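FAQ
Q: What does a multi-component entry look like?
A: The components come first, one per line:
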Amino acid sequence: MTGKGAKPREKASGTSEHIQMDALAYSSRMLHWPPLGKLLLVISVLVVNIMTDSVITAFAVMALGLILMAYSTNMRIPFILGVFIAEAILILIIACGIISINGDTSQPCIWSADFLWMDFYMTSDSFNEAWLVMIRAIAGITMMMAFATSTPIPHLAQALRQIRIPDEICEIVVLIYRYAFLLLERLDTMWSAASSRLGFSGFRRTMRTTASIAVGIFTSSMNLADKAQVSLECRGYRGYFPIWNRPKKAGVGWVAIAVVTFVLLYILGTHTEGVIDFAGIVFGV
Amino acid sequence: MDFEYIIEARDLTYSYEKKDGAPMSLKGVSLGIKPGIRTVILGANGAGKSTLFYHFNGVFKPKSGEVLYRGIPLCYDKEILYQLREDIAVVVQNPDEQIFSSTVEEDVAFGPMNRNLPPDVVESRIRDSLFKVGMEEFRNRPTTQLSYGQKKRVAIAGALAMEPKVLILDEPTAGLDPQMSQEVMELVDQMCMTGTTVIISTHDVDLAYAWADEIHVLRLGHLVYSGKPEEFFEDRDSVALSGLSLPHTFSINHSLEAIRGLPDAPYPRTNSQLLAKLAPSDSDFGRIRIVPVSQDSQIDTDGDVVGVYGFEAKKLFRDRGISADINFNAIEGCCLSAMQGHDTTIYCDQELAATIRYRIGILTMFGHVPEVV
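Then the predicted structure of the entire assembly, as tokens:
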């Protein structure tokens, strides 16, 4: 068999990377840090990352994110997550490439080209802005990854509870987390079953099979919801999910850390704006 | 106690659809579950076993008829239903439908927390129930990272943490490997020995025949039999109509009647009982030694074949790094070992010794048996 349907599947439903991310969070060295504290720190750093126009601040945020991620995962990033990060960076490079060749035509040009009906016009500002956007975005990804690899979703829900997000929303977060895995597992099984019956041989058949699986997953989710409701009632459910092992609360210390980090990065940003001129380095202009 | 049945169903009728004339999942089912009696609800797939269970704890309300708990008809008031579900715990067939929480301890704590128990009580319930199902070291593990068998144990631990008076298990061994099935049944067995009324639903006739004191057979929503397992399996037409088959031990025993002229009764339910019935009176059996143990007991595993039975005894073996020859289904395993001529020692929990002695003693009904010391 040489059809596409017979090919071994490397990635179908995404189950493995979800489970790996979950496993990573539970084995993190930052697991017992207060989730609300971590959330505050990440949000303050992400905000300051956007507020300032300094590449140095973006680099600092990226360095902070990488350090936290390395500490959290003990330098053990699963290969599949590494591939996803690399994929995201590749998309960013393409996006920033587009920003850089879409410069303001009233400014001096450092490079231009015509291709079919498109005019490419790169200026010093557009080139520098593209770099800033890219480094900022990568810095944001590293910070968010540091948070995601150290905070299981139930801890995040607990953090949301602490900042007075309604219980209903927090419980939905936890239930989505719990049942997403079950539905992903079911999706994986359906995918393998369809694949073993040549359901993915040819474009049209692949489309039809994927649609059937989507319908199957929807039906499964309804069934699962019914059964889960019965199980909940069997276990004395009273309309809310009690939490037994509450993660640590974020004290004043964590607020101080978030504020100090924010202020330091902001000051760094305001004093280092325009310090690095990428256009000058690359094009000598 | 001024009631004969801990749970009783009277003329129970139920349909999953609301409209009139819809097909009925239960049709006039009347049965009683005696306290402390090992009860199996037997039936093919779709017979209505799970539907019946959900009536026992008030999750489903019958279309007609009534359910009585301790002789009192169920009242479908919210608070009373909460109290009822504290007493009657159900372990559903698929653990994924029962486990909601992200970690093992969170899930086990779910029931006790719903009862608003004090934290120290919840903590001891978590510890005890995880200990009973052998999942202590998995306490902080995410439930998404467990195997099916481990999830099943967590689901059972969740029910045990409620400390129910009645434990209902829907297909407890479905999807489990043989060793895990034996572990689960041994756990269930010990729950019975310590006074919990256990009800199991299954279509596994071998399990039902070996384990049950009493069976209730459902066929397409009708109750077709209630009573001793032997009498039901004697009626082959009924067995076939119910979508079931004869248990292995029952079949062999029945065949022996034709081959050797041995009478059917007494009916052996386990391999050891069957062997006792077949063994010549001059067979050279080994002896069985029953040794109740506590945390400071000395354990001597030299010479004899060693079996271990009971939560405490197993923990003791595990803590001291001692390996037993027979870890699961040890009463039956030790009887078979002694019948093969090996002197056998069974280490057990203090409170289980008398029950084990009684269970081995039952063998004398069937013929020549090993000596128990």
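Q: Is there any commentary attached?
A: Sometimes. For this entry: The CA atoms of residues 318 and 324 of chain B lie 10 Å apart.
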